[in-house]
């Protein structure tokens, strides 16, 4: 007899789990959290998971309670005799710490991978990792999905002439180039120097943007310093319009204010992270369908490559 499928949600990803479950024709299972007065908490499944193929949906954006809750839910499922446990992590936190870029720093992404495997997870499903090589930090299957599945159709729906896809920095040039090839558009790359983390120094553009409709592509927007500075610089160089498309709406600190006061026409995100605040320039697209299809394909031992555009 085939193992039953069950979907559960971490407390801060219930909004997305509900949409994924609905798209998959399933229901989110019952779970609870007991919180102690000192901040410690305990997770519990309120229904049996014995012999089930369990999918736990939880993005690990700050605070770290989201990561800890996911680890506890994985451990609880394994101890309750679940057949398989898959961690569905639309936004994989600590992914920016993928290497030692200076002495005496941690490789946080590898540590998180170790923690997930130590908790007993059998599979990880995520989207638009900050660095593709993080998949290699795991010794278990990793399904790396792409926000392009919903972001590319949106760009096409805008029907922009003289389109140029731009990368906000050199690190994102591979992603921007893939979008530009698919859309048969021009390509521009913004070159920046950082004074320190989250602080952008000088910036210039490589490529022709004069009279063009520019769409900046990135995996995440945190403080919006890079995106806002890039948009203003591209506008100064003659761009007709400037938009930004990103998978993850981290949006910390002065991000909203910077977006509002920048030359950006609009900023489009997926719903991998819930929007804590917003403004008229921000638009959100749902990734529920792509995750629902992938979850069902994994459960039914079918290929997931048909779910990718890029």
TrEMBL record:
Protein EC: 2.7.6.1
Domain of life: Bacteria
GO terms for cellular component: cytoplasm; ribose phosphate diphosphokinase complex
Single GO BP term: ribonucleoside monophosphate biosynthetic process
Enzymatic reactions: D-ribose 5-phosphate + ATP = 5-phospho-alpha-D-ribose 1-diphosphate + AMP + H(+)
Ribose-phosphate pyrophosphokinase N-terminal domain location: 5-120
GO MF annotation, one: magnesium ion binding
Cross-referenced InterPro entries: PRib_PP_synth_CS (IPR000842), Pribosyltran_N (IPR029099), PRTase-like (IPR029057), PRTase_dom (IPR000836), Rib-P_diPkinase (IPR005946)
Record key words, sorted: ATP-binding, Kinase, Magnesium, Metal-binding, Nucleotide biosynthesis, Nucleotide-binding, Transferase
Pfam entry (one): Pribosyl_synth
Protein name, as recorded: ribose-phosphate diphosphokinase
Native source organism of the sequence: Ancylomarina longa
Lineage, highest ranks first: Bacteria, Pseudomonadati, Bacteroidota, Bacteroidia, Marinilabiliales
């Amino acid at each position: 007899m085939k193992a039953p499928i069950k979907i559960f949600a971490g407390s801060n990803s219930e909004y997305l789990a509900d949409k994924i479950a609905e798209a998959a024709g399933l229901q989110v299972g019952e779970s609870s959290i007991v919180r102690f007065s000192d901040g410690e908490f305990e997770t519990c499944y309120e229904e049996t998971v014995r012999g089930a193929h369990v999918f736990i949906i939880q993005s690990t954006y700050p605070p770290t309670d989201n990561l800890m809750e996911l680890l506890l839910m994985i451990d609880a499922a394994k101890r309750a005799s679940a057949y398989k446990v898959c961690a569905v992590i639309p936004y994989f936190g600590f992914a920016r710490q993928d290497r030692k870029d200076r002495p005496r720093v941690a490789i946080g992404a590898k540590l998180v991978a170790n923690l997930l495997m130590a908790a007993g997870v059998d599979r990880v499903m995520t989207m638009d990792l900050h660095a593709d090589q993080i998949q290699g930090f795991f010794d278990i299957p990793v399904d790396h999905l792409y926000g392009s599945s919903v972001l590319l159709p949106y760009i096409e729906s805008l029907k922009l002439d003289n389109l140029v896809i731009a990368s906000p920095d050199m690190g994102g040039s591979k992603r921007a180039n893939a979008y530009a090839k698919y859309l048969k558009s021009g390509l521009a790359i913004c070159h920046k120097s950082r004074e320190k983390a989250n602080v952008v120094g000088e910036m210039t553009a490589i490529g022709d943007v004069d009279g063009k409709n520019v769409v900046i592509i990135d995996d995440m927007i945190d403080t919006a310093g890079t995106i806002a500075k890039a948009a203003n610089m591209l506008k100064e160089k003659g761009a007709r319009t400037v938009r930004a498309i990103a998978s993850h709406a981290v949006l910390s600190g002065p991000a909203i204010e910077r977006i509002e006061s920048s030359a950006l026409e609009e900023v489009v995100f997926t719903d991998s992270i819930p929007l804590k605040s917003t403004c008229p320039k921000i638009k959100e697209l749902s990734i529920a369908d792509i995750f629902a299809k992938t979850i069902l394909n994994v459960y039914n031992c079918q290929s997931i490559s048909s779910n990718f555009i890029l």
